[in-house]
Amino acid sequence: MQGKISVLISEEKIAARVKELGAQISADYQGKELIMVCVLRGSFLFFADLVRAIKVPQKIEFISCSSYGDAKSSSGEVKLGLDISTPLDGKHVIIVEDIVDTGLTLQYIRDLLAVRHPASLDCCALLEKPEARKVPVKVEYSGFKIGNEFVVGYGLDYAHYFRELPYIGAVVD
Ligand code: IMP
Question: Is the pLDDT of residue 1 over 80?
Answer without folding.
Answer: no
